[in-house]
Amino acid sequence: MTGLEPAAVVSLELHDHAELFEAPELAPLDGRYESRSGVDRILDDPGVTANGPRIVLDLRLPDHAPTSTSPAPDAAAIAGALRGYSRQRITALDARLARIRRRGLIELVAGSIFLAACLALSGVLATVSDGSFWVTEFLAEGLVIVGWIALWHPVDLLLFEPWTHRRERGVLRRLSSAQVRIARTSEPG
Length: 189
What we know:
The chain is an alpha/beta fold. The chain has 2 domains: 7-83 and 177-185, no CATH class; 89-171. The chain has helices spanning 38-44, 75-127, 133-149, 152-176, and strands at residues 7-13, 54-62, 179-185. A 3-stranded parallel β-sheet has the order 1-2-3. The longest helix is centred in the middle third of the chain and has 53 residues, at 75-127. 15% of the residues are buried.
């Protein structure tokens, strides 16, 4: 990297370096209200997209990490931990996407069979004429609607559910190669 490429700077203020990966404990009396890990805060940020320039992660940490028993890691150690953590979460997301796809296809087949049965039964009801036209029409149209509703969830699983997981995977890929900069502060965040 020449340093001239564009970068998306993401700034986080953490009370302890471990909060990048672990959810911190709430301490309202100490003025700490955040309950999400730093990575989760980045993933929840709508300004951080799956595609875009490299990420520069600016971490603001106190000089003395009060809740940590290990020495404060440097930027290279945090970048390495971020790579490993991102890889693990990407692997878990890939497995989740595969389960969603498999479940969606199974439900699509079942929903299609159910829709076909509803359409067939609706066709039979539409041909029945016993003087109560509105009742048979009501039931025939209701079966068509119920049949289509049966496809709603599989279509949602196959088309829309994966979007958030794919975005998260893309952000994690960008995070895995993020440049990490640490700024030490005299007061904890």
